[in-house]
Design goal:
Blueprint lengths: L5 E5 L2 E4 L3 H13 L5 E5 L15 E2 L9 H11 L6 H8 L2 H11 L19 E2 L5 H11 L3 E4 L1 E9 L2 E9 L5 E5 L2 E4 L29 H9 L3 E2 L8 E3 L4 E2 L1 H4 L5 E3 L7 H7 L6 H14 L5 E4 L8 H11 L3 H8 L7 E6 L12 E2 L12 E3 L11 H20 L10 H12 L10 H15 L8 E2 L1 H16 L9 H26 L10 E2 L7 H4 L2 E6 L6 E6 L8
Parallel strand pairs: 1-9, 2-3, 2-10, 3-6, 10-18, 19-20
Antiparallel strand pairs: 4-5, 7-8, 8-9, 11-17, 11-21, 12-13, 12-16, 14-15, 15-16, 21-22
Helix pairs in contact: 1-5, 1-12, 2-3, 4-12, 6-16, 14-15, 14-16, 15-16
Length: 566
């Protein structure tokens, strides 16, 4: 079991993660340069991996007639309280419609009206029948003759002379250590769930909003390599249907649900009149629900009483659920007494750059601060509300930039044998221990301390200096105990690596939360000791860099224009 072999692979472009951004980046690279050697390293299988695995019923970022990239930028800027990278958001908006049409050509069914126009869902969405969206993307990858390493989990980047030149990967099924050398590396491995204690315990702990297998590895790879990261204090907390964590957008935008309290009263309007966050739906709907619960008028619900049983509208609604959230369809079908209300609550916090803006600090070409390394999708920071279509745009941009720079990049020498042996020893060490800490116990300890001291569900997401300092100390202790992790097999070994990744991400989250001494994004970043928004001091980015020698996390403040790169 412990005797892991080494597989050496040379390629031109390595893409870590076979989700929305990774698949699109790979197809784009092969379209532009059919002869380029392009390889995707994917922990699962690209047919059903990542946060699109179950499907999608709406493309949430699209410009309908009368809208423009500039209007989309204005919308996102308002939603995120003016802290965002305008250049990144604008570059995404400029490419949205083109990539949606491209994926439609690949086979995605998009609903159209009698005139052949896309059927909107909300102001910026498009209705799709996307249950098979991920297989459609995977098939486009295969047609492009991209090489795919399925079931190989990335463990660390390979850095030589200050440049990313590849990555290590652990074979989930064969136990081999893969050493992939490349002239360019795109990280597209998704955001992070499981950092905080989940809303559901035990065997139901994976009934969460974000994909439970996106554990922050894409972030952790860059953190440990010394890449500059941004906005990890901008956690994403979703308003979701309680227990099944199904998306409320399907109910509100797709089915016209009303948000009501336990007394049946609509409550959004009364908060909208005077609350400073009223213009940001991203934060307002959850915040209003938290305030209503705190006032003793909860639990709160989405009321679908206007949908008649067996009506055309109900049938359409159930079809939407089956395209994205089958568990929600079962809940609706089995509701007691035909109750038309579905209870809602906030999720645990996630770290994700597609809905929020945590991720790598990048330029408009999606270059990170580490030469040779690019970022796209949920791991790319500073550009929120990109969703699936925005991730496709970023994958396209990153591929184009990487190809251009690879032409002039010098060939790197082979990876030092000592480095390979060191990574092999680090990765396989848990297999050699018959006593120690299991990955599940390590994960539960992490989630408990983050929940209680870094603004989780049990504390209503609220933060203060004293608790965050306790979290910092406990995380340092926990990181020091990762050399006690043990694993009984290859899948548990991957879980051990994921536990380390989550802890490294959590340390950065806490440092960012400590540094931003204001409340800019309520619920997401609510400081009880600094309850007000302070544009005079904090209209800027909070960034960080980990010292690769000492492990110390250094905070760096950056301006909004993104030009002051390290």
């Amino acid at each position: 079991m412990v005797a892991t072999g080494v597989v050496n692979i040379d390629t031109d472009l390595l893409i870590i993660g076979g989700g929305a951004a990774g698949c699109f980046a790979a197809v784009e690279a092969k379209t532009l340069e059919p002869g380029v050697r392009c390889l995707i390293m994917e922990k699962a299988h690209i047919d059903r991996s990542g946060c699109l695995a179950m499907g999608l019923n709406s493309i949430n970022a699209y410009l309908h007639p009368g809208q423009s990239p500039e209007s989309y930028l204005g919308y996102v800027k308002g939603e995120f309280m003016d802290v965002l990278r305008e250049d990144l958001v604008l570059s995404i908006a400029e490419g949205l419609n083109d990539v949606v049409r491209k994926v439609e050509e690949w086979g995605l069914p998009i609903e159209k009206d009698d005139e052949g126009k896309y059927v909107p869902r909300g102001r910026r969405g498009v209705r799709v029948q996307g249950e098979r969206l991920k297989p459609i993307l995977a098939e486009a990858v295969r047609r492009s003759k991209v090489e795919v390493l399925n079931r190989v989990a990335a463990t660390n980047l390979i850095v030589s002379e200050g440049r990313a030149v590849g990555a290590f990967g652990l074979g989930v099924r064969d136990g081999q250590l893969y050493v992939v050398k490349a002239r360019g590396v795109i990280v597209a491995a998704g955001g992070a769930s499981g950092i905080y204690k989940t809303a559901n315990p035990g065997n139901a702990r994976h009934l969460i909003w974000y994909c439970p297998w996106n554990v922050g590895t894409g972030y952790a790879l860059g953190i440990r390599a010394g890449a500059e990261m941004t906005s990890f204090e901008n956690r994403f907390i979703a308003l979701r249907v309680k227990d099944v964590q199904a998306p409320t957008g399907t109910l509100v935008l797709g089915a016209g649900a009303r948000q009501v309290n336990a007394r049946g009263e609509s409550y959004l309007d009364k908060y909208y009149r005077d609350h400073p966050v009223r213009k940001s739906a991203t934060y307002f709907r959850l915040l209003a629900t938290m305030l209503e619960n705190g006032a003793g008028r909860g639990p709160c619900y989405l009321d679908l009483g206007h949908l008649g049983r067996g009506s055309v509208e109900e049938g359409r609604f159930k079809g939407d659920l089956l395209n994205m959230s089958p568990s929600m369809a079962l809940l609706w079908a089995g509701r007691d007494g035909g109750d038309s209300r579905l209870e809602i609550s906030g999720s645990e916090p996630y770290i994700v750059g597609g809905h929020g803006e945590a991720g790598y600090w990048i330029d408009v070409g999606r270059r990170t601060s580490l030469p040779g390394l690019y970022a796209a999708g949920d791991v790319a920071g500073g550009a929120p509300k990109k969703y699936a279509s925005g991730s496709w745009v970023e994958g396209r941009i990153a591929a184009r930039t990487a190809l251009e720079e690879m032409r002039s990049a010098r060939e790197t020498s082979g990876v030092n044998t000592d480095i390979v042996e060191g990574e092999k020893e680090r990765v396989t060490a848990p297999l050699k221990r018959d006593r120690g800490i299991s990955p599940q116990d390590m994960e539960e300890r992490l989630q408990k301390l983050m929940d209680e001291y870094a603004g989780g569900l049990s504390t209503r997401y609220e933060l203060n200096e004293e608790r965050l300092l306790i979290a910092r100390g406990l995380l340092s202790e926990l990181r020091g105990r990762t050399d006690l992790l043990m694993a009984g097999g290859r899948h548990e070994l991957v879980s051990a690596m994921e536990a380390v990744d989550r802890i490294d991400v959590a340390r950065v989250v806490v440092e960012h939360l400590l540094h931003r001494k204001e409340t800019r994004w309520p619920c997401s970043q609510s400081r009880l000791d600094y309850p007000d928004r302070d544009d005079g001091r904090w209209l800027k980015f909070v960034n960080s860099v980990m010292d690769t020698g000492t492990g110390e996390i250094k905070i760096v403040e950056r301006g909004l224009n993104g030009n002051n790169r390290p």
